[in-house]
Each structure stands twice: as C-alpha cells, then as structure tokens.
Amino acid sequence: MKLTIDNLDGQGPQDYTAYVQANSLSVARKLNAPAGLKVALVAYSGGFVVPATGGRVMVARSDGSNLFTGYLVATPLSKYCGWSDQGARYVYEITALSDVMMLDLKPTTARPPFVDRSAGSAFQQLTEDALPGWFDLSGVEAGDTIPYLSVDPAKTWGASAAEIALLARCSYRDDNGKLFLTPLGQNTYSLAESDATFGPASLQLQATNRLVNDLTILGELEPGAHVKDYFVGDGSTSRFYLSQIPFTRKSDIPSYNRTILDETYTELDPTHWVVTDPTEAIAVSAGLLQVAGGTGADGQTYLRFVEQVELGGATVLEHGDIVFSAASEGVVGGLYAGAVAIANCVAGFRIAPSGSNSTIQALVNGALTGTVLTTMPGHHYIFATQLYPDEIYRLEQTYHSSQHPSGNPRGATAMGSSVRVVLEVHDIDPANPATQVAPATVLYDGLIANAPDFCTYALINSANLRCAIEFTYLYLAVDAMVRSTVQGQSEQTLPVGSLLEGGQCRVSETPTLEFYSPYIPQADQAIEVSYRAGTHAMARLMNSASIAALKNGLDDGVRGALRQVQLPKARTAADCENAALALLDDAGQGWAGEYQAWNQFLPGAAGDIYPGDGLNINVASRNAVFLAIVREVDILVVDMAGENSRYSMRFVDAGDPLLDFTFGPAAVKESTTLTPIDVSQVGNVYLPDLTDADFTDVTSTTVIIDAGFTPPSGWGIEVRTSDTGWGMTNSGNLIGRYAVSTFTLSRFARAQGYFLRSYDNSSPPRYSRYSAALYVDYPL
After folding, report:
1. Are 659 and 629 contacting, i.e. CB atoms less than 8 angstroms apart?
2. Among 113, 313, 427, 512, which one is most buried in terms of CB atoms within 10 A?
3. Is the dihedral of CA 273, 275, 281, 283 positive or negative?
C-alpha cells in the first residue's frame, strides 16, 4: 500500500509511505457524504516536504485499487516529538476529504427546479453545473423518477446530492475522479455465523422496536376542494370576496419566490438551455437572442429549456419581446409531448411566411386554429402562454421501503388532467405609445382534454426563423383561473397577477379577487373564479391484522404514531397515504449493529465495503436473520507493507426509515379527526372528484347545478351547505341527495355556497376525496 501526495508544486505525486506513523492512517466513510482520511507523517529526514493545503492525496493498493483519493483540506498540524541526530523531529497530522469535496467548494448554481427527472439525471446535472467535465459520470445509474426538486443555492453540492440519493433510495461515492450512484444494497454480501471467517465476538447487535399499526402522516399544504365562485359586476365594484382561502404553490426556496426562469440574453446559459443547431443559426449578440435561419425542416434547429414544464397548476410562459427581420417559418414558444416537432406540439405559436412579413397563428395538438395575425415591419411582439390545469400536481411523490426499493417504489402515479390554454400576442408599435398598454390579441382560449403530464419547452423551433428575442420569462402564476363574460360577448380568461406581469386582477389570501382600475367589471359582467381550497395534507392508516394479532385482554392492540414527513415531501393526502404505507412496510422489529473484520476476512469475500452496500446477516443463535444496509465504514491501516487493515462496519436493517425519509417535529395543524384507512384499502377508498361541477343557471330563488357526472344505478350526488358531515348518517347540513347529473336547488341569500361529492352503492358508501364547492354572490 502506498501513500502519495501531489503538493501542486510541479513535482508531481510524491511517495510519503515511509513517513507514515504506525497505526495512524485511517479512512472514514459515511453514507452519502465525502470520505475522510487522517494520517500522521513523521518528518525524520531533511528531505521531507510538508504537504500543502489542497494537495492531491492517494492511498493505493498493490493491485491498483484505491483505498482513498482526495485532497488536503487544512494546513497540517505539527507536533514536536523529540530530537534526533538531524535535529528536531515533528509529526504532521493531515486530514483530507475525498474528491467530491471539490464540488462543495463551488457555489451552487442558481438553476430551475428539476422536473420529472430520474435521480441519476438530476445527480449528473448537479455535478456538471458545479464542475463541468471534471468527473467521470459513467457509474451513475438512473434510479427512480423525482417529480420535482428545487436545488437551494444556499446548500452545498453534497447536501443536495444527499437529498437526491435519499429520494431514490440510492447511495453515492467517488473513486479517483469517478462518481457512482447506485441503489442501496446493489452489492450485497453474506455475513453468516456458518462462514469459516465469521467472528462472533466482532458482531454487536441491538434490536430496535418500530412496531406501529395506526400511523398518522402530516404533510404539506395541499390543494383541497375544487371551488368555483360566481360574481356579477355593477360597474364600480373592484373587490369581490372569495368563499375560501385559495391554495397557492410556494417555492421550496423562499428567496426564489415563484420564478422558474427570468432570462435576458447575455449568453446561452447551459444551466437553462440545450441548443440543437446544425447550421449555427442561433447566437447571442447585443443583449438579444438572434435567430437567423435553420435547415428549412421542422425539429432540426431549436432552443430547448433544460427542464420539462409540468402541466400542473397555473403557469405563465412569456416567450419574449420578438422583432422579425424577414419572412419567417417555425414555431415560437412550443410545448411538445415528446420530441420537438410540429406534430407533437401541444400548444405554441406557428410562424409562417406571408410575402415579406409573417403570419402568427395558434398551434394546438399539432393543428392550426383560431385567429391569424400578420406581422408588421419594426413592430415588437410579446408572446405569452397561460396554462390552467385542473390538477396542481401531475405526478405523485415517490416513496421507498425495504419491500419497495429503488426501481419499485410506492406512489409515482400520474394524475390525469384537462388544461385550459390561452395563447396571446401583444403587438407593440414603437411609433404608437398607446400600443404599449393596449390589450393583447387572444389567438386561442380553449380546453385541452387529457393533456400530457409534462412537456418539453422549446423557445424556438426554427425551420427558417428570422428574428431577435429580448427576454424569456417563466413563472408559477397564482393558482386561480378567472373567467369573465360581458353581455353579448364570448367568455374569456383574464390574466391574474401583477400589473407588471400583464395581470388584470389579483387573488390574495385575504381571500379576495381584486381588479385593477383599468379593468373594473362592467354592470352585469359575469365573473367566475376557479381554484382549489388550501388545507393540510394528512392521512391515517391502520393495519387491522396487526391490531387483531396484538389484542390481549384490556390491550386493544393499537400501536400508534404520528410523523411529520419533510423529505420526500408529502404534497397531498395521497402522498401521505403512500408515505404511511412505506413506513408500515417496515413496522416491527428493527436492527442496528457493528461488525469488525480484517480486510482479508470481509463479509462474503468482498474486496472492499462501502456505505450503501448490503449485508445478508444470518446469525440464528441471536435470532438475527435480516438484510442490513451499511451506513458507516471506518478503516484503520495497521500494516501498510502487508496491506492489513481493520474494518469497522456500522449498519441498520434495510427497513430503517432514515434510509428513505427525513422527519420534522410533528404537530397537528388542524383540529381534524381523521378516519383511519386500513392498509388493504388504500387506493380503493375514494371516488373521482366532481371537477366539472358547475352552475348552469342562477335566479333570485334557485340555482341549477350540473355535476358533470351521471351517477350509475345506486349511486348519487350528495349536496351540503358546508364541507363537513359526509355520509349517510349525518343530516345536519344536508341539502339533498340526487341520482341525476342536473338538479335544481333553492337559493335563500345573495351569497350562498353548495358543496358536492359523489357516492356509490358500497356499504358504507365511498365518496369523492375532495368536494366540489360552488359559491354564488349574485343580487337577488
């Protein structure tokens, strides 16, 4: 075994093996953290060079494998140890961290959140953002999909990498410039008392009790009831009070607010864009993105956003202030279900040549539709896409356990949704200041059924675009859709947000809808506000079989617990259920322990052991038969010449929840009594929500409601005055139960609300998870 240090003085790696003090070289490895090295060097000759901070350290075996590679992280500590015939002698204690410490020295790049990425892809991107081309990433495996993850620039690379690994039930490590990301337990070795090399005195085991059969999980703020509030303008009222507090997505990183991308073009930032440009038609100059042609074919020259766009929750994409310099052909601001190609375009702006100018038309599901706008020389065009999906999140969170390891997680179910898409263009004539504040032209305002969960966003798909683009802005809008109908006109979607963002009104948590002075509703103008009510995600699951088995006399057999999940984030009640299922997978007896062995006698004849490796422990004499995951490995090199090292491996059983979760202080956020769900019934408890419920007519004494769902025989629609008491046994706030889709209800006040859920003919009946809440505030 050889210790070399390159002091970066131009002399290359120098052999320090002869200076190593006996029993001083040790290596500490921890799960999803840099490995550390400590060693004491005795300076017994005048030729000794004190290692320099930042020096490259390697401890290599004679077979070419490495025990450690990394860099010195501090100035060596010197200690006087006596006098020799050559003068005073000193011992220098040095510390080093493995290669990934270089990534922690780099500032974390402010980048868009990872969306629908595999863990391996996110891990690679995080690494390349920090040190492009520095590491060999061929050892990084894909892992499971991460629906959404914001990378906090206040955290180091290592902290974010550890989060990615935990989300996928993986471990990462490094070796001489190569990074590995692999599922926990991918390399598993036998540790059995029947093995000839097993040392019973070297094994310490501690049983732990994780028995729980009634588990409550608390999550994040979630979107609850599907609310629609209806108002009518009187020509002067600018503020309308909403019936409930709207749910609004908040960034994981407070300082990020809700902005996904705010790009002004000084360069093509690789953390934002991927360029496919065989003819070099795309460039940045004079603070503008310049597009000068293409191959003449669809989908061959394009500028693609590095992340996908989730068609969940209100999202606005402003594709830029664009000036066309000649007749052009291509697509601007396209959202694609797959590869960048017109046939795959879910929504975008089709640009086509028209003499020396161009036409702009909405492109929806690969086909042209709606109004055609012809460009004028010198005019500026601001393209904007507004997305209003029925669902806030399109993919459930992913959860793991020993029974659902990497590659077979719980959750990760796609959530279908329709999406209202508004495509508009603001035509600005620099010679006419009035056009600066003129309303945009709406090219398309329609509903796309069964829209994709995620889309590729390409700012430009240039067959032959000739234009300059000043900015691109993507942000999470307020999660509320406001639609309005002026008498004699068709219904239209109104932009919600600040005036600077082009909004006509804003929605606040007061909760109110407030119109800006230029857009105060006219008399008899109908207004509809659609949003989700905010509530806290939580779920309570029980294992009735376990409870029955433990029941004994006065002991009812219940073993309860309440946990606040921090990571993976439980964004909805369904996520809370899946998190609870994962934790209940491994409820019962757990294990923790430590095993020591010389390197020649490692479990299963392993050449080396790393955190994240598995140990199949079979020690029947201690009633210990389980799969363990190594969390820490400490190595003490006792004999460098003979390459003899003492390994201490600390492990937990594969069901330890800290392999898959982080938890916070648990606090009940609402005085809600949760009805427990048996683990055998999860996924079969709730009916679909009545997302299409709507008023079809409102008079001074009645309302007509279309639930948007025709109940089968024995099913029905239950209507209540408040969002409580659902079930056949409670009639306190019941308005009625209806076996048809459309029905008439009485109206007794100017402002009145109705709450709807469907139910079936089960015993007891199943209901929708979330209510449809219809609220009307019309003069009597």
Report:
1. yes
2. 313
3. positive
